[in-house]
Amino acid sequence: MEKKLEELKNRLFEVNDLNMIGAVLNWDQSTYMPPGGAAARGRQMATAGRIAHEKFTDAAVGKLLDDLQSYEESLPYDHDDAALIRVTRRNYEQLTKVPGELLATFLAHSAETYQIWAKARPENDFTAVSTHLEKTVDYSRQIANCFPGYDHIADPLIDFSDLGMKAESVRTLFAELREALVPLAQAITAQELADDSCLKQTYPENEQLAFGQQIIKAYGYDFERGRQDKTHHPFMTKFSLGDVRITTRVKENDLSEALFSTLHEAGHALYEQGINMAYEGTPLANGTSSGVHESQSRLWENQVGRSRTFWQHYYPQLQAAFPAQLGAVSLDTFYRAVNKVQRSLIRTDADEVTYNLHVMIRFDLELALLEGSLSVKDLPEMWHGRYQSDLGLRAPDDSDGVLQDVHWYGGLVGGAFQGYTLGNIMSALFYEQALTAHPEIPAEIGQGQFNTLHTWLQNSIYTHGSKFTANELVERVTGAPLTIAPYIRYLQTKFGELYKL
Amino acid sequence: MEKKLEELKNRLFEVNDLNMIGAVLNWDQSTYMPPGGAAARGRQMATAGRIAHEKFTDAAVGKLLDDLQSYEESLPYDHDDAALIRVTRRNYEQLTKVPGELLATFLAHSAETYQIWAKARPENDFTAVSTHLEKTVDYSRQIANCFPGYDHIADPLIDFSDLGMKAESVRTLFAELREALVPLAQAITAQELADDSCLKQTYPENEQLAFGQQIIKAYGYDFERGRQDKTHHPFMTKFSLGDVRITTRVKENDLSEALFSTLHEAGHALYEQGINMAYEGTPLANGTSSGVHESQSRLWENQVGRSRTFWQHYYPQLQAAFPAQLGAVSLDTFYRAVNKVQRSLIRTDADEVTYNLHVMIRFDLELALLEGSLSVKDLPEMWHGRYQSDLGLRAPDDSDGVLQDVHWYGGLVGGAFQGYTLGNIMSALFYEQALTAHPEIPAEIGQGQFNTLHTWLQNSIYTHGSKFTANELVERVTGAPLTIAPYIRYLQTKFGELYKL
């Protein structure tokens, strides 16, 4: 058995090397690659991806997994070897159940769709991409149908990013959340808008970057095992557990852009840097789901990084770094500015209160497209209708409407968005649990110290990598299934205080 | 036939993708990678290299080459398809004649030796690495013996980097060169040393980099298809013909470091950027030999970048960029400073006149080790003896003696050094030929214009990639075999004028 496990691991290490290589190629493409490198880079990424796929879906891997089943069954569920075999089998089945030809055709279609969308969005031309989007919906259905036995056709697609979540259970959670969010958003937006002009002054790039880096260092982000570079769209990427990088985007006329994207991506990176080193090179060495990943980026960005306690410590330092811009701005004004709530059209710019309403619109529309109750041609108008009813706004065009997010134009329709809101819900759930275990955490944050919180997250969540699913992790950490209660409490307390509700 | 050629190309593209991926991984390792990434990066590079090797040495490639032989024979020698099949076959034979197991054992040995050397050099401990070096000599002999029929055991190893050059012919060239160089070096070093203190002031990094970049842009280096980053050891690397990058090292207390390494690496890059785009992804899309590659780096660094004409144009700009440092330094003083000739211990710091003496010592010692007339235990003393007799100096220790260069400790003994001097020789040969064709070149250089020279090199050398060997290229360009005469003329004229000989 030991030999078989060894052989499986060696095959996994090779696949992992190729996947990590793909990440390096992508990082370079987004950070430093000159324009002339683009054509060849596309081919290089495709080659690495194709070989990784071939090697992972090799029948020999399936045979090893079969041979190891009795060993797996002899072990406790949370034994590392059992988890490795279980998670590898799950990934193997996900990748082998979709016929290679279908996958290849879809990927080619997807690359083409992305190119068309990248042109169609600035030109506000939804019809240019609508035939492709129809095909995407069709491919998404075909891929879902490779996994028969589902309750809802979106379930297998949701499984790709948030394993174990179901359309129905997510719908229920989201409906509950909506009931609390809508009146909260209404009560806040009935008041005068917060003044965030203090953030819109000129802030030199280097000083902005230095300030953000100093904070994430204090969070526990290890620059010996990572680095920060600039990109057009911020992201976190990993080349190994010893090399977890983040990127940011700096706007010299908007202090919040680089600062909060840095805290957000550092949250993702803390998760990956915290995975048990013994899992290196295997499928266990990844965050377990989109939702759990997002819970960490949002926890460090929002629960911590937009809290009053946090700024009680950091604001004097920020003022010292930017005396001309902030010397005369009070902590209270600054705190209200970084927590400004406003109905808006663009998901990625949305505040903590309204953000989830954007996600829910997309989630509902995805399900309707997959079910066939909504056709692609009616999608733009349905989008506007939902923005009108849920957020009281209508985008002037499709560029800031149905064309605003890349997800449907560079991947599947189905499963693309729920992770953002699941992440917000879990961020509060985990944070509340950390505070219960260590009531001293807020006081420490007020001192610019994050070690107790970081250590608790490390031991409760990060170290496990993909050993447990999101649902299992929530159960282990809180002793109960996923619930929105802590998240509602968090929002109501924070924004109730801010807006005297 | 067309289908077979197509199939061969597709296999070559895949291998090329994997090789280029290896280059990206290596570039990142040398420029931006945090320390924590090192362990996994070594494995990732090994995986990409192993798969590339497996795919290139696949028997199916050999079969395709056999099938294509009659097609190749039906074509003129300089037809692109004929060249592709010929060069691919040559590389295929080089890689398949060495048994996979021998190669793998040697590569593992080599990686280990490098680690030991990296520690032994600063500790001045040759004995720590001498047993490994003995094994390297033995492996080098074994690998050479995979290519029976050679005149000298070093010939197959020389072929790896300078195909078609032979130990005997190189020895003859070097002996001739030595006869001219020794008296020249003696005549110069009998005089007072040039004063280069003007270069050793404080020069801020960003201004240094900007100045170098402005020059190489004028040379014709295309920043849309390349970029410059900082590393410990400067190098040129290529990820595709559209992405050819260079690196440099800046010393704020030595202006010549970044400046001339930038011109040098840009010379390598101009060669690669100039290869016929139709060769992209195939073995033709590479510089043809170490010697020809070095001829281009040295031509742009020395023949152009250390010429008086060049500085007549650029020195006023350099003074304007660094008025406090150079405002009071005359062009003549500066020109003498960047052409200072001095007997020294370290090859990489050597000037144009003495540089080749360093290379010859290494070349002779390599041959002696391979022939068995010199044993590794006697090598350090032999090194000191040769430095004493050839350069009149003795290093205080082995760190600056036999341990100074990485080559023997990270690769084969044999074939590692001759390319540097062959490059110098060819740089003058090609440059003289360009001047014969276009006598206006020096006047243009005096205006900071390089287009005529660049275009001539592009059409005569760069565009061909690996289509012709170095010897073939020299014959095509000059109508005669390689000769040292132009190089001697160049050195005697330039340094004769500088030192009034």
State the low-pLDDT regions of chain A, or none: none
Discrete helix count of chain A: 22
Mean pLDDT of chain A: 97
First-residue to last-residue Cα separation of chain A: 62 Å
DSSP E strands of chain A, number: 3
Structural class designation of chain A: mainly alpha
Radius of gyration of chain A: 23 Å
Major sheet strand order of chain A = 1-3-2
Helix content of chain A: 55-70%
Oligomer: homodimer
Question: How would you portray this structure in words?
Answer:
Two copies of one chain form a homodimer. With 501 residues, chain A is mostly helical. Among the domains of chain A are: 2-97, no CATH class; 197-287 and 295-341 and 435-470, no CATH class. In chain A, 63% of the residues lie in helices and 3% in strands. Chain A has 22 helices and three strands. In chain A, helix 6 (100-120) packs antiparallel against helix 7, helix 10 (205-219) runs parallel beside helix 11 (255-273) and helix 12 packs across helix 18. Chain A starts with a helix and ends with a helix. The mean pLDDT of chain A is 97. Chains A and B meet through helix 1 and helix 2 of A and helix 1 and helix 2 of B.
